[in-house]
Design brief:
The chain is an alpha+beta fold. It folds into five domains: 31-143 and 518-583, Rossmann fold (3-Layer(aba) Sandwich); 154-210 and 441-515, no CATH class; 242-434, Alpha-Beta Complex (Isoleucyl-tRNA Synthetase, domain 2); 600-778, Isoleucyl-tRNA Synthetase, Domain 1 (Orthogonal Bundle), CATH 1.10.730.10; 782-842, Roll (Ubiquitin-like (UB roll)), CATH 3.10.20. The chain has 28 helices and 34 strands. Strands 10, 11, 12, 13, 14, 15 and 18 form a seven-stranded mixed β-sheet that branches. α19 (617-626) crosses α20 and α22 runs parallel beside α24. The model has no long low-confidence stretch (mean pLDDT 93). Bound molecules: ligand ANZ and zinc ion (ZN). Ligand ANZ binds at residues 243, 262-265, 268, 278, 345-346, 349-350, 352, 354-355, 357, 360-361, 433.
């Protein structure tokens, strides 16, 4: 007789295993989601519970990085777990394919961005498939595809109809060398990211989406987002920056100009001793025209335009400014106060002008000291004289002083009284200010969705009719912006007929910010190939909201705020049925190496492909989640990658050492009673099932789930090596433990798990129901209680788990070793920790 045939090769070789199972999933279209809107047939919406798990879509820059691997592995684990739990899972993938890198490559090489992008997408797709992600590839989209941006344009028109998209003048970043507008992200330390030239602010006509109209709702609806990280909500709250205050109108002393201010402290109006307008304020020119101060003011304003808003807002910066020689009248005192121009006042907050209250505002105080302006006290804390001089701005509580009809009031009361006083005289009113600005979406760039409007001399700005969408990007010879959008160079494309009057018109040549594309992609996934609409309501209502969204915390404000805004507008338009797009959000931590964030620019990148070819995709997937808590920043370790590979080798050997045979049922407790080692192992398997399910499904704690499976594998390996599981019960227990470990490992390491499952006599592990722990195995019939006397171990007590606590101390005292230890002494206290310990304190 020959030795029994091995059920697995002796050595684990990941490459053939991984390609075998990837091919199997592809053949079977294993991760297809239903329903998805196609063309024609209306899909039937099932009754089954659904789970939409989504990771932020990648930018196809050429190669994926470790951050992507971690992000998508997390989503994958969650998707597998839910799918095997009987839920309809939607796990799509796409590409945020418009934007700078493809365009910059095009400018350098002349290769059309569409070609660069197609090549990059093909490469990323191959990498994602190589990692075995369980994605519904039928729903794959690219935002630069005309079939996608057609609907981005269509949605833009819905915003336009609702008055939420508008064209107006605004100060924008301008690089005089490159002759182009720059996005804020393209301005680094006040300089152009491309050429290093100093950036200027220019007044240009631009397209905006009126996100400020939704500021309050974006705040209010955060109450629904109970499963979002508090940190992200706080960042959004700060970004929106709501503050309650008042608008107060000041008039120049000649009565000619009105200049309103926004203040959060109308109570301090009696203390306003001077007045400041932002250097860009349109009134500045009129205030100083023809005056001796004009030249100095203009020079100051030009210099201010070169500083970044962040620098200008910095509280510690020296307070510079110039006088205008003009005065405004403080409306409550009737006194004239001087008007200055200073760059710490920003044009795009409030009204771009402030009443300066140096007695109670730190920046105003610093400015007054620097320029010899008067400081007045209008609030005195308890016990302070109204006339006490101020050595610094007083920002604490107190009562009003030197403030006429407000004297004696507390600050909050005075705010209300002053607001009422102003309102009565039509000099102001209570208002709410927001730091949030409207969203500037025009880009003078080639590689984006053209804004679908035309300009007609007779009709003005006219939307392109829906049935003429998409407005396709024209072919151009030069992709570089030269003071205007590269689209403007395509004269044949620009010249068109007005859809309204039929006369001559010119196309808008700006393209949209790529954040517009990614503000609705999660809706399009539900109808990726639908050509009659962006999505279909019935199907959308089934899948939305996204149940679990996963991405980097760097998107806490921009993308996540824009997507929320889009969803609300589409909800108001009756196009979607939810007000919030993402029910739960998980933000992952970053991967560090040698103490720095892993990134190309730092030169500390570990390429995913390298790890895959060396250790296998399963090892990489395990490692990125085993590193530590998924939300935390963690340092990469080559050694720990090897550790995960050794674990895969271990489970491979465990299964490979078993005999051929079918899958086994969970051994019954009665049968196990005769074999304590087997019983322990099966109980451990059940406990592992319970832990892994909760770790994935509830806690998002992947590293602990992996270590639980490792513990089970280690115990089974040890028992097998010790030959403790020789009888039939033992053999069944071992097989059952191995089966359980493989089944639970599957979401993390799907390829090798499928291979091992097959060796164990199973098939198609991805379709196998997720194991559910049997409670009976988790309960213990007996417990072991440690008995101490004065904290010292004396004996142990075995007893039924349901023994009442009150009886435990008596049983402990009766133990012979304990009885002799307490003989002749007085027991002053009995400490009982239920199920664990009894401590007798004696004197
Ligand atoms: C008078 C005053 C007195 C102020 C006082 C503060 C304290 P938040 O809370 O962030 O909304 N401000 C208004 N517009 C500004 C601008 N464009 N640039 C710079 N500062 C501006 O800030 C509102 C306060 O910031 C306003 O209230 C105004 O100064 C200043 F004891 O008005 B306050
Ligand atoms: Zn017209």
């Amino acid at each position: 007789m020959s030795a029994p045939a091995r059920i697995l090769p002796e050595r684990y070789d990941p490459a053939p295993v991984e390609s075998k199972w990837q091919a199997a999933w592809e053949r079977e279209d294993a991760f297809r989601a239903e329903p998805v809107s196609g063309d024609g047939a209306h899909p039937v919406v099932p009754e089954r519970p659904k789970y939409y798990v989504l990771e932020m879509l990648p930018y196809p820059s050429g190669e994926i990085h470790m951050g992507h691997v971690k992000n998508y592995t997390m989503g994958d684990v969650v998707a597998h777990h839910r799918r095997r739990s009987g839920v309809a899972v939607f796990h799509p993938m796409g590409y945020d394919a418009f934007g700078l890198p493809a365009e910059n490559a095009a400018i350098r090489t002349g290769e059309p961005p569409a070609e660069v992008t197609a090549r990059n997408i093909a490469r990323i797709r191959e990498q994602l498939k190589g990692l075995g992600f369980a994605i519904d590839w039928n729903t794959e989209i690219a935002t630069s595809d005309p079939e996608y941006y057609r609907w981005t344009q269509w949605l833009f028109l819905r915003f336009f109809e609702r008055g939420l998209a508008e064209r107006r003048e605004a100060p924008v970043n301008w690089c005089p060398n490159d002759q182009t507008v720059l996005a804020n992200e393209q301005v680094v330390d006040g300089r152009c990211e491309r050429c290093g030239h100093e950036v200027e602010l220019r007044q240009l006509t631009q397209w905006f989406l009126r996100i400020t109209d939704y500021a309050q709702r974006l705040l209010d609806d955060m109450d629904e987002l109970v499963d979002w990280p508090e940190r992200v909500l706080t960042m959004q709250r700060n970004w929106i920056g709501r503050s309650e205050g008042a608008r107060v109108v000041f008039r120049t002393d000649d009565g000619e100009h009105e200049i309103p201010v926004f203040t959060t402290r109308p109570d301090t109006l009696f203390g306003a001793t001077f007045f400041i307008v932002a250097p860009e304020h349109p009134i500045v020119g009129r205030l100083v025209a023809g005056r001796p101060e004009e030249a100095a003011v203009r020079e100051y304003a030009a210099a201010a335009a070169r500083a970044s808003a962040a620098d200008r807002g910095d509280a510690d910066r020296p307070k510079t400014g110039v006088p205008t020689g003009r005065s405004v009248v403080n409306p409550v005192t009737g006194e004239p106060i001087p008007v200055w121009v200073a760059d710490y006042v920003l044009m795009d907050y409030g009204t771009g002008a402030i009443m300066a209250v140096p007695g109670h505002d730190e920046r105003d105080f610093a400015f007054a000291r620097a320029h010899g302006l008067p400081v007045a006290r209008v609030i005195a804390p308890e016990g302070e004289a109204p006339g006490a001089p101020l050595e610094e701005a007083y920002t604490g509580p107190g009562r009003m002083v030197n403030s006429g009809f407000l004297d004696g009031m507390e600050v909050e009361e005075a705010k209300r009284a002053m607001a009422a006083w102003l309102a009565e005289r039509d000099l102001g009113e209570a208002t709410v200010g927001y730091r949030l600005r409207d969203w500037l979406i025009s880009r003078q760039r080639y590689w984006g969705a053209p804004i679908p409007v035309v300009h007609c001399e007779r009709c003005g700005t006219v939307p392109v009719p829906d049935d003429q969408l998409p407005v396709l990007l024209p072919e151009v010879r030069d992709y570089a912006p030269k003071g205007r959008s590269p689209l403007a160079g395509a004269e044949d494309w620009v010249r068109t007929d007005c859809p309204r009057c039929g006369g001559e018109a010119r196309r808008e040549t700006d393209t949209m910010d790529t954040f517009v594309d990614s503000s609705w992609y999660f809706l399009r996934y539900t109808a990726p190939h639908l050509s009659s609409a962006p999505f279909e309501r019935e199907v959308l209502d089934y899948w939305m909201p996204v149940d679990q969204y996963i991405g980097g915390v760097e998107h806490a404000v921009l993308h996540l705020l824009y997507a929320r805004f889009f969803t609300k507008v589409l909800y108001d338009a009756g196009l979607v049925g939810v007000r919030e797009p993402f029910a739960r959000l998980f933000t992952q931590g970053m991967i560090y190496r040698d103490g720095a964030k892993m990134s190309k620019s730092k030169g500390n990148v570990v390429a995913p492909d390298e790890i895959v070819s060396r250790y296998g995709a399963d090892t990489l997937r395990l490692y990125v989640l085993f590193m530590g808590p998924a939300a935390e920043d963690i340092e990469w370790s080559d050694r720990n990658v090897e550790g995960q590979r050794r674990f895969v080798d271990r489970i491979w050997r465990l299964v490979g050492g078993l005999e051929a045979g079918p899958l086994v049922e969970r051994p019954a407790l009665e049968a196990l009673a005769a074999d304590p080692v087997a019983e322990e192992l099966v109980r451990k398997a059940e406990a592992t099932i319970a832990k892994v399910g909760a770790d994935i499904g509830e806690r998002f704690s992947f590293h602990t789930a992996i270590s639980a499976v490792q513990e089970l594998v280690n115990l089974a390996t040890k028992d097998a090596a010790e030959g403790a599981l020789g009888d039939e019960v033992g053999r069944d227990a071992l097989r059952y433990a191995a089966q359980t470990a493989v089944s639970l490992l599957f979401p993390f390491a799907p390829h090798v798990s499928c291979e091992l499952w097959e060796a164990l006599g199973g098939e198609a592990l991805w379709r196998e129901p997720w194991p559910v722990a049997d409670e009976a195995y988790l309960r213990r019939d007996t417990v072991t209680i440690v008995v101490q006397v004065n904290g010292k171990l004396r004996d142990r007590l075995e007893m039924p788990a349901d023994t009442p606590d009150s009886g435990v101390a008596a049983l402990a005292r009766a133990l012979p070793k304990v009885a002799s230890a307490i003989e002749g002494k007085a027991v002053v206290r009995e400490v009982v920790v239920p199920g664990r310990l009894v401590n007798l304190v004696v004197k």
